[in-house]
Amino acid sequence: MRLFGREAERAALDALLSAARSGRSAGLVLRGEAGVGKTALLRYAESRATNALWISGVEPESDFPYAALHRLLIPLLDFRSRLPEAQRAALEVACGLADGPPPDLYLVSLAALTLLAGPRRRPADSGSRPGPREGGSRHDPGDFGGRERPDGMAAAGMRLCVVDDAQWLDQESLRALAFVARRLHAEGVVLLFGLRVEGDPGGDPGLLAGVPAREIGGLAPDAAVALLTHVVDTTVDRARAEHIARATGGNPLALTDLAQELTADQLGGSVALPEPAPIGSRLEAHYAARIAGYPAATRTWLLLAAANAGGPGDRLTEAARSLGVAPGDAAPAEADRMLTGSPPSAFRHPLMRSAVYGGAAPADRRAAHRALSAITTAEADADHRAWHLAAAADGPDETTAAELERRADRAGARGGHTARATFLTRAAELTPDPGQRAARQVRAAEASLAAGAYARALLLLDGVDESTLPGPVRGSALMTRSLAEVNTGTPDGQRLGAARCLAAAQAFGDDRARARRAVVQAIELARSAEHLSAVSEPEIAAEAARLTAGDRPPAEPETRAAKGEPGGLDGLILAGYAAFTVDGYDGGLSAVRRALDAILDPGLSDDALLARMVVGVNFATLLWDDAGKIGLLRRAETAARRTGALHSLDLVHYLGAMTWSLLGELNEADRHDAAGLRLRAALGMTDEQAQVWRHPELATWRTEPGLRESVGAALGVFEMLNLGGLHAWTRLSLGVLDNAEGQYASARDTLSGLVELGRPHRYAYALPDLVEAALRSGDRRTAKLAAADLAVVANACGTPRVLGVLERSRALLTTSDEAEDHYRQAIGHLTGEVSHGDTARAHLLYGEWLRRQRRRRDAREQLGTALEMFESVRAEVFAERTRKELRALGGTVLHPVRERNETALTPQEAAVARLARDGGTNAEIAANLFLSPNTVDYHLRKVYRKLGVRSRRQLRDGLHD
């Protein structure tokens, strides 16, 4: 089709393609209503590229996992041996080329990125190719054999990938390709999507969130009139043409189809036009009316073609023969340009297929699917046969339901959780027995949860009376509802989540393994909701104790999880939680230690480590075991990268930023925070969703502009959403900020609400700040009680940091010269540990004490050390407090001048540089950072230039953490 009036859109596409020829990459979504010209623009882009891959979404294929991605990658699959092993294995299972465990979506996505970004040779031939709406994979011949240029780009230059009708891709493929689009950077790849939208053109972007989008509207009046006059063979009255352009909204498909049906008199202006004009959703009704006038045999052929969309032509012909029709019966529709000729028949536009299928009588649709199922007999087509059987069923049918359930399990084995949910949902609809039907609905809800379709999971569960379910099925339903509500941000989900998990544990009955998993989940959800949870810690502890009663403590606790001894890892976790909840620091730490040692066991699998990482971090915090917590997070980061578990990796970065902020190691906290932001963008998280993941503890060290207002607003949001853990952590951060700014009474009030004096518990790490705040606000009694609790914690844990902050607190409370000894002991315990912040604060407090003792030189030395430490991590709030103390000693204290450093590495460049320094190849670094090797090469060249090095050996010498 000739393009009319699309100069701006064509210029935008030309700019993307031109940038790709220079090595840059981009993704773009063309969004618009049906018939607005998205495909024409995509064809224009293809005509400007010499290396293109093209697929179109096919609605009947949307329930088959990774079907679209497989079609797109077919020309490249011969080169999958070049992929890292984990990516190759995941891709082969996803594409049905090998058997194996269900593949991780993001490993498949990264494999697709690596293949699409790989080297390619210019095509030797550009012969005839199938049309883009025929459901095939449209590509230029060529391979990955081209030589690499020094800058990492392939000799053939850019590659264009087009995904039209993206709304009909299977969910796994669309998620994978959206991930690819968000990670493109320096591969010379352009990935274009055509997406049909109705109603609000700027509405919810869905799975393509985060990919740049361009709204494609109707043609401008002059262009619409030009198109209308171009497609008719008679004179068109200008006023009538302008009226038609307005009536159709400039929709090119509506204009061209309407023009073909109007008479010369109507176009000339002497006869009225039909109203309303067929645009948007009315186009489908327009086509349906046309189809209704075809002979019965033509309608049957069209219906079979619609039901067989994406299937082979011989299947269509054979099914048609069984219904007494033949390819020749399609002639009226072909003459009308409704579809192409020889099978496989392809509809000119998807709306035409929808009009055929949606307008057919239900009995006729069932007959068409029955005919197709009868001749779909190959084992490779078993999924399609099951789906045709399901569509042919006119009532409950256990045989078909059971086959769908088997197909669901097969889809799940390929990582197709969305397809599994769809198959199970249809299986439930066809199940005669009410109990079995409910069980299949619960399984479908579980699959929807695994697919990230949380609202769908809740909708399925709402159709089940949970009180009538047998125990284990009810337990599964409760667990699924709990997690689905939490993930949809439902306030009651956070509040009731732990309670539902406890109810699930009871429902699982004698299945102690599942019951224990449910209570561990209750612990995690209760830590998230904390004081806003519907159940208390003692209630959870009682259930944990019940499920671990009779367990024998192992002789070698650190190996219990690996060896699978009675109780297992979850048993140790429950025992530790119950013991600490009941006995606190006085008697509960040994059980917590055993559980943490089991989580830290090097023999623990990656999946188990990631599943219990949050509990491990919480237990390490209780024990003040900084080394154990940091080691756990580093192992979890490695495991998440190795297995492609990006949501777990995101959680690692979140916990990492929180952990390092607590320790005052703000540069490392920045690394995790920046990595988390990049990863969330790649996962398609919106800016609004990302607000919940902000780090108040990092912000308060830095005193960002408007901090108190933004933190105050966050507290309200956390309370509304029942996120008690974040609410408490934010209050702790405000207490630290108040201390730093000398607002001691406010700090005391805030921190007192987090602890129960006389019974040190979960927020024991607030005690050192409470001692300082209470003492300096004149509340010596509270300060002494807090110090006594801190002594209990220190005696139980005995780690250098807790001993250091205890000595620092004792120094504050001491009125004699013994304070100096306590300060020196505090600094001795803390120096060399990871707690940069506590060490710097010990120097600050010691310096303040020395100034009051009029020991000016000694005070200046301690305060100078503190200032240097605070400024090294940009802890501005404490740095300013230190400067005030130094000014009181006399002399000038300069603020550091932070000029823009053009040679400073970005967080992404720094990550690439560290891995290259440590010996990683480009491919290994790419797999580690979820990038393409081309992007790694791009960043590495910038690192070399900024650091003034020319080799990895020089990088090892010049780069330091």
TrEMBL record:
Residues 131-150 have a biased composition (Basic and acidic residues). The keyword Glycoprotein does not apply. Residues 119-150 are annotated as: Disordered. PROSITE patterns: HTH_LUXR_2. Keywords: DNA-binding, Transcription, Transcription regulation. CDD domains: LuxR_C_like. SUPFAM superfamilies: C-terminal effector domain of the bipartite response regulators, P-loop containing nucleoside triphosphate hydrolases, TPR-like. Residues 898-961 form the HTH luxR-type domain. Pfam families: AAA_16, GerE. This is AAA family ATPase. It comes from Paractinoplanes bogorensis.
